[in-house]
Queue: 3 jobs
Job 1
Amino acid sequence: MISAIASGQGKTTVTAAIARHFTQHGKHVRVFKTGADFIDPMMLRQACGSAVFSLDLWLLGLPACRALLMEAAQQADLVLIEGVMGLYDGTPSSADLANAFGVPVLAVIDASAMAQTVGAVAMGLRDFGPVQLAGVVANRIASDGHLAMIQNALRDIPVLASLRRQEQALPERHLGLVLPDEVGGVDEILNRMADSLSLDVNAWQVIPTMRFTDDESLAVDVPQLLAGKRIAIARDASFAFIYPANLLALEQMGAQLDYFSPLADQAIPAQADALYLPGGYPELHAETLSQAHTWLTSLHAFQQAGKVIYAECGGMISLAESLLDLNGKEWKMAGLIQGQIKMQKRLAALGMQSWITEHGELRGHTFHYSTFDCPLTAFSHTLKQKTQDQGEAIYRIGQLQATYFHAYFPSNYLATARLFLHSDN
């Protein structure tokens, strides 16, 4: 488990550097991301070469987390789990996840503005829970002398790795890192980070490893609720926020997935029974989307044919009548849902939520920097995990459902399947 005292310490950078380092040395590395996140896992996938799944005790539940870890442990030489926020933040926290499976913790500490105090921070992280602290990754160190002061202050805690200040870091946007495809020379950046990583090989080799008993089962019985169905999925820079587990869940339920790009002005595949519009950055591509006539024509025809549409967050934004960007410019959107999306610099909503459907609880999260001025009455609302207060609105218009809520499909296969089936079925 790679964690820290807070966000901004460099967890993703360090995780990516470690993953790329061991991958370069011929090791098979699997990486997980704690919490609800789309962009960091894309960058981590770029670093390790395999899909990065979420690992969260609330979002997935303990049995599903165990199954994913067991599968990864059987496949990989090294399994990394990037934590969320600070080690003890959230309920459940990254520390709870680590302790649930006996996973040792690597504490990433931004040492750019401290030296010996790194020791106090590390001991506090170890003892507060406590957790099994394997060691420290000293990030953004300035010199060998700086590193030596840190090592002397850590007493019995080893510095497993250190990383110098990077002249070129992974760029960020308001939701976190930018998409890997938008970064010129991203592999070169990752390679430089891996080359800059100073690893204590001897200390690394004696980290206690996680063990599973032989009688623990990997079997997950997924009902074939979508057998024979074809689901069209928008996938490009405007519709990029998709949990890999969501795609796997749809396939495991028997669906065939057909991808297309609205930004490239591609039509919805004609053979599709349902349409999935995931989240993303439509606000960054509003002009292109507003002029994508082939995409828009196919979308209206799809709705008029009475086919199923499920849109979440950015997907819903693309279906509104208009979008008002941060510069005050209004862009025409698809117009399938009445109302205007208004972008803002301040975070509008963040946190884990759940949708209590007639088929049970569907878990997920919300994270957006816009508001929706919509005259429609919501069909339903999600519930906030922490307070059980009313969360995001869910709108239903015929066979169309749209919401800011990002659903995690494996949390409820039946409720998920109903999102993509005609309401008369």
Job 2
Amino acid sequence: MSQKVFGLFLVLIAAANALKVPVTIYYESLCPDSAKFITEQIFPTVKGELRDYIDITWVPFGKSSFTTQGADVIFNCHHGPNECYGNKVHACAIEHIQANSYQIQNTRESLTLDFINCMMKAGKNFDDNVYPGARCARESQVSGWENIQQCANSTEGSHLLKKHGETTNQFQNPLTSVPTIVFKQQYDVKENDRAMSNFLSIACKYIPQPQPKVCAALNSAVATAVTPILAILAYLLVRFF
């Protein structure tokens, strides 16, 4: 590849990334509300219509806390010790998942989304009481589960989770609700609450033109619903004022 072609390639990548809406998700590995939001809102929307428009930053910590004892980090998690381990697995997966050159249909981001979605679906109900990490890695076409597992069982996992804890505490200490969703680094409690049940409608607000068809259809539906209301208001203003 010539230097000029490579430069054009980088420009195209930068342009594509500029269209993506940054979304930060603060969540917990065993939180039922986090599982519901990720599996019912984030996964189908980002995996489908908005695949090329959303850039997710995952922060698996939630309402946990930590203390340091020398080189060790001790965690106290909202849903108990199993969640602490789950949070470490998520932190390690976010750090270590990589796309393979022969899987051109998968990106690092899409593999991470698939893996996290599988893990959140499993929740506390592990088949045969076996932790679902290996199964989710296999089903999500994520290679290197052994590296993720080794990370979660070592000081690396603790240090990665501690970083997510510091990120969470810098944002909000303590975190008031789990999950918490932040668009473009600006937290809006109303948007957070609405995104919990209709992530697509909030995400479409931030996607620049030209928007994907699903956003255009959503905007059209809203306009159609609003027009009769405006007509009624106009009539009332003329009639009574």
Job 3
Amino acid sequence: MERILAPITDIIRPFWVPISTQFPAPIKSLGASLVTPECYTLVIENLDLVTVPACTKLTISKAIGTAIIGASSIVKVPQILSLISSKSADGVSFSSYFLETLAYIITLAYNVRQGFPFSTYGETALILVQNIVVATLILQYSGKTAGAAAFVAGFAILATALFGNTGIIDDKILGYLMSATIPLGTLSKLPAIYTVYKNGGTGQLSRFSVLNYLLGSIARVFTTLAETNDTLILTGFVLGAALNSVLAAQTVYYWNAPASKGKKPEKSYELNESVGYSSGLPTNTGARNRKA
């Protein structure tokens, strides 16, 4: 790797350094706080990717993590717009979102209480909120208004127990719950996969969200190895990436299929119809996480 990187950086460095050394103070301060002052100077300012490999690895991980968090703020927006536009939850599994949201709120609490860097899990909080909105809309458009209210209330109570100083869920119990998110994350994808298969089409399932979930879970495998190396979290992301790849393959296979067997196709928001988001950077979801 050194033989590949050194010649490339040697060519770019004379053009890069005059620019990087003139970055505004707030940007320098933010960069140094993310990757340590030493790594910021070495990798970002001087574009030295060879001298200290650990700094290069950390900088890449932080860059990926920050991109995931930024992109995750809109990862479920196409799905929300699709549901609202069609006023239909066809092809979108509530049980899948319920299990995924349950896994996400536990994962968020675990990361916060373990004191892990925000760059390794920040998208979990953003996607969690969007998941609650999607799940509520699914119930609403399925004629289960009372169920939607109960769903939101139930998660509010759970959040109080996980994040509040109630003493109900201590670190040991939280560790057990975190272990449970691995099968939860797996089970959360199975209803979605089955729903697409049963309907013979993706319906209102957002292709944009599915693709970003896949890319995000793959990227999170790298950031977890680089910054936390937590076996529980890593296992979840590996399994999530595998199942997200199945769901992504289904969206490709059923690309032009009707919303469900025996029904006419319904309009489904795609990338260019919803938010105009064109970045190739991954998000998590799932997950950005876990599908992240």
